[in-house]
Design brief:
The structure is a homodimer. The first copy, chain A, starts with a helix and ends with a helix. Chain A is 65% helix and 3% strand. The relative contact order of chain A is 0.12. In chain A, strand 2 and strand 3 form a beta hairpin. Chain A is mainly alpha-helical. At the A-B interface, helix 1 and helix 2 of A face helix 1 and helix 2 of B.
């Protein structure tokens, strides 16, 4: 009876999974190939697919089945699948349909105003709409917190990275904030002593960039029989595990941005492609969370592809692709180009060393916004104080301050920590991979990613959501997230000492 | 109460409509851009979207609502919408889910064997599988016939072209079969007297063909803000009315095939794009049927774009695009190239004059198969006799005979007549358009399709499924389908006399 209930649940969630996969493809299409005039119909299609899946998830039958499936003789994957089903059910039913609709409307209205307020640097213009979004986010956080037994902020994080806890993240981020000022000073001094790297001369034609990107994707392990590379305004990894669609954007004056962008998205793509094939379209077969997802893109981009080893491999390829830039594409110069540190105001342009400061700032502020300790009146000032404290920079315009990211304005609170948790997990996982397979760096230096990918398949990708991120990291590396490994990686890379 | 039931039905069918639109986009993606390895997941997504829509349509609530919506104070479009809902409900509920599943399996199994039997010319190899498909098709026809009050064969046609009746089609087709032999003889003689047209010299680069195709699409009225042109193995028109995706395939040795293919699909696209915007995703907002759909593609391709007027416009464009072929692209020579008549075995390669003979043959044979008057043992012989009688050709191999089309082998009985009904409706509609707007041919000669398109929007496209095909044609042309207009068109075009 209860095992039968579980089987019915699997069928039900397979349907939701197929609807989600269909929506994923429609999202890719919208970003990569859809003509402008298709937006209205596409929004309608996506909204309806979403409503149908939501109704399946929140239907009384689902609740009955989840109750009846308790205590059954399930194996560990089935049990984990059932847990994920429950988590999704709780998230979906914590808020009433009317509330979700109000939230969707408030977010759309706010995002729309933000699109003009940001370039104008006019926080006041959007503050009212943001207040409405924040009020609803706080209400949602409280409702979910009660159902999940978490703090309100944790309940929000749980949507993006299940199991993320303030008690674990705060000390890690505080330690990094304490480490950064002196370290950053030493890195900048060290960099200055070396002088500026040689810049390669463009233009770098788009077709050439694309061909090189596809070549490197293949080298890293992207399977073009199960995926594509296309162009979109905002690069992303979408599609489904059996048909992974990554996108990038090109700038003819820069050889580097699209290249590292493609490599980053390839890291995401490898994770999706490596998810357990036996659990397609089931909750347990999905990627674990956004922090772990980001760890996979950053492991490939930051740990592997910005390494000295990979620069050695990439150098002759670049020289062949863009002749006449021998000095710029010399392995050592290339490594310096790819590891320049420049404290700045904008998160998305930040380097590996200063990026966490941007995230820590947002993490602290959004907790205060959700708890009510910080009002929106005080947000720009608090932002600017934080930037001064963390990176020593004076924000002159909210355009380069609290208006820069879309996240809050479209209601995403609790997402930001994923970026830096990803970077830290990436350092720890990469170190563990090398400890297990010491040949990995040399292989990367030959353009051979197979040993690394094999380790990732076994220790991360293939586990889907059968374990929590903490369990996956502990199992793979022998200990919970330890930010010291990230600092050690930075010290070695940017100061040449361990 | 009953008007309320109607409103609920509209919401219900809007959901099914969105699922169908999503499936349409996924089909386009599969044909145009999907990597090979995506097939398994895509089949699963499409099957599940289909099951969800089917369950919505056949649910007991739908039956209750359809009953309660009777006799309400609906306007004529709402009433027509309700009629279409009923028709879809009857088709969907006439067969049990178990029967539909058995049919799906039998079709897939048969089609698979056909893919090797056809090139081998081995009808016996596939006869058993085809028998299974035919038996199920006959059972389905009988079940639907009872529910719809039609003959079994008409019940099958009704799926593709609602309202198609044997009593109307048979005399039209018989008259054409009687007209053809002598007419064809005169055309071939007339053609011979003129000598062979000059052939242009290739190659014709694919990028150039594509650019020219897009240019002509724009000239004919395709809105690239609401659609795209892509490449696929089998050209089609897909997507949705707000985002019409057409495809073609290119052959560098032929300038003509892709060009006319693109123009043909553009005709389909204009129909989809012109469907009534107020009724998107409702049954009454959909294209009327496959015969009318084909009339729109053939009106643009055969009536408008293979005309002397259009050849006059196209000639300088082709000369500019592919220099060095002045004689071949002279307007008169171009017209002759585009109106060559060559009786042959293969339907998809047939010219405008002999195409109906291929359709009439299949129409006669499939009626006999469904009624039981013809057994599969006798099919190849009956086919070959028919070809001899209709076109005077002796079939030497079933590969060029009854094995050539996929339709029957994947269970499509009752579809073939749509092609020639489309050609005949196209001639009649085009004549009516010119009668109403005598400037249309001269405008086409200047590359101006606006007057023609305006007439089609008003008299065909914008009507959606609010009327039957017969009603649409009668309203637009003043009389029911009259095949004499098609014969008059052929006589004028191929003998230069009316």
């Amino acid at each position: 009876m209860s095992s039968n209930a579980y089987q019915v649940l699997e069928q039900r969630f397979a349907r939701m999974g197929a609807l989600n996969e269909a929506a994923g493809m429609l999202h890719w299409d919208m970003a990569a190939v859809m003509p402008e005039g298709g937006h209205g119909a596409r929004a309608e299609q996506l909204a309806i697919l979403n409503v149908i899946a939501h109704e399946m998830l929140t239907a009384p039958e689902t609740a009955d089945l989840l109750e009846n499936a308790q205590g059954a003789g399930l194996d560990s994957w089935q049990a984990a699948n059932l847990n994920e089903m429950r988590r999704l059910y709780v998230h979906a039913t914590a808020l009433s349909p009317a509330f979700v609709e109000a939230m969707t409307r408030a977010r759309a209205a706010c995002e729309k105003v933000w699109r003009t307020a940001r370039p104008a640097g006019d926080f006041k213009a959007v503050q009212g709409k943001l207040q409405a979004v924040l009020d609803l986010a706080r209400e949602a956080a409280a409702a979910k917190a009660e159902k999940l037994g978490l703090s309100p902020y944790e309940a929000l994080m749980d949507e993006y990275e299940p199991g993320a806890r303030v008690a674990e993240i705060t000390p890690i981020f505080d330690a990094y904030a304490a480490f950064l000022p002196e370290f950053l000073g030493r890195v900048l001094e060290h960099q200055k002593a070396k002088g500026a790297p040689v810049l390669p001369q463009g233009p770098f034609p788009i077709a050439t960039q694309k061909a090189l990107g596809e070549k490197l994707m293949g080298i890293i392990g992207f399977d073009f029989n199960h995926g594509r590379l296309d162009t979109s305004a905002h690069p992303f990894c979408g599609g489904t595990p059996d048909d992974v669609r990554i996108t990038t954007r090109y700038d003819e004056s820069s050889f580097a941005d699209a290249l590292m962008g493609v490599i980053h998205e390839t890291g995401h793509a490898l994770y999706e492609r490596g998810l357990p094939a036996d659990w397609r379209r089931q909750p347990v077969g999905q990627a674990r969370g956004m922090a772990l997802h980001e760890s996979q893109s950053l492991l490939i981009e930051m740990q592997a592809a910005r390494s000295v080893d990979f620069c050695r491999f990439l150098s002759p390829l670049l020289q062949e692709t863009y002749p006449g830039n021998a000095a710029a594409f010399h392995p050592e110069n290339l490594f310096r180009l790819y590891t320049q540190v420049n404290p700045g105001f904008i998160r998305v342009n930040a380097d590996e060393v200063t990026y966490p400061a941007h995230v820590i700032l947002r993490y602290r502020l959004e907790q205060a916004l959700i708890s009510g300790d910080l009002s929106l009146d005080d947000l720009p000032g608090a932002w600017n104080d934080g930037m001064k404290q963390l990176l020593g920079l004076t924000v002159a315009n909210d355009r380069e301050g609290c208006l820069q990211d879309i996240h809050w304005f479209e209601g995403l609170f609790g997402y930001f920590p994923c970026y830096s948790l990803g970077a830290m997990n990436a350092a720890q996982l990469f170190a563990a991979a090398i400890a297990a397979e010491p040949g990995i760096p040399a292989a990367i230096g030959r353009g051979d990613f197979k040993p690394l990918l094999a380790w990732l398949r076994q220790n991360v990708h293939g586990l889907g959501s059968s374990l929590t991120t903490a369990e996956i990291v502990t199992r793979a590396t022998g200990r919970p997230l330890d930010a010291d490994l990230f600092r050690r990686h930075l010290t070695q890379r940017y100061l040449g000492t361990a």
